[in-house]
Amino acid sequence: MVYLDAAATTLRKPDAVAAAMGRALRQCGNPGRSGHAAAQAADAVLLQCRQLAGAMFDAPPEQVVLTMNATHGLNLAIRSLVRPGQRVVVSGFEHNAVMRPLYALGARVTVAGRRLFNPADTLASWEQALHARPDAAVCTHVSNVFGYVLPVGEIAALCQTYRVPLVVDASQSAGTLPVSLRAWGCAYIAMPGHKGLYGPQGTGLLLCGQTPEPLLCGGTGSQSRSFVMPDELPDRVEAGTPNLPGAAGLCEGLRFVAAHPDLLAHERRMLQCFRRRWGRAMRFWGSGNQAGVLSLQLPGDCEAIAQALAEAGIAVRAGLHCAPLAHESAGTLDTGTVRLSPDAFSTCEEMEYTADTLARIMNNLSNL
Length: 368
Description:
alpha/beta; seven-stranded mixed sheet; four-stranded antiparallel sheet
């Protein structure tokens, strides 16, 4: 299979990820609950994961919370900051992992910056929206549909100036672009483990600049006499038995990313290989400052085109990508797009094969 759906999940993982998960299944017990070897092995895995993530994302290890995915982390962050009826600023490219929690809370949402690959417009729109003193702000670092890298550092500085707590969705940037809790001064940064960090599904991280409110309450192995959740992180929001095999696999994913600082450059090269081979008129979105995601607007049904590619052994994503706000901003809400997103293991030969196969599919469609 030619796998070009890494923006959803990096299917191809380093071999060390599966090996570490197998060891954790055999060797790790329940962390924080006992003093025996299996419990201590579990404690060591969690500490290692927090330390590796803290070093990579400029956060104290105790402020690194393990989550099920980025959606879990974003719900924790948003529900800790936003009350029903409060005003929240978001970018024009947010995922439903942001928009649905906000609408479920009854938040009043202001959308700031809807022009693709235009950081100046984005910043001007954000400053205007922040001048109205909203209660919170949420901004994606990279659009999962178009690969637009938003000027999050500058947006974070504006939020500090206006004293507005900021949540950053780093789902498409963690592992390829610099992400820093300390430098940005965010309230929270959420990210999945299963995308650019090359960990397993069912893992994620929430970097906490503030103390979140629990979504779940239960056992933590600490302060067991109390019927309320501990105040200290990470226990405050990590109730119940954690995903130890997932954390062990995520550790190896973090190590892989740390050892390959050129992942974004590689992904960009792969997209260039596709563009060079394609060589025909089409509508696509891109700029020099683009992450490893390319959306195509092609004649015909994008879902049918993606299915034809799948039948040729090429995995892509088509439709609205759980981000209707981004498609509305780009004018593709009615058509959707076909999205290509390579990974660390993609090759130029795979990209050229994809371009050739897509050309054949489009020719067949035009002849019907």
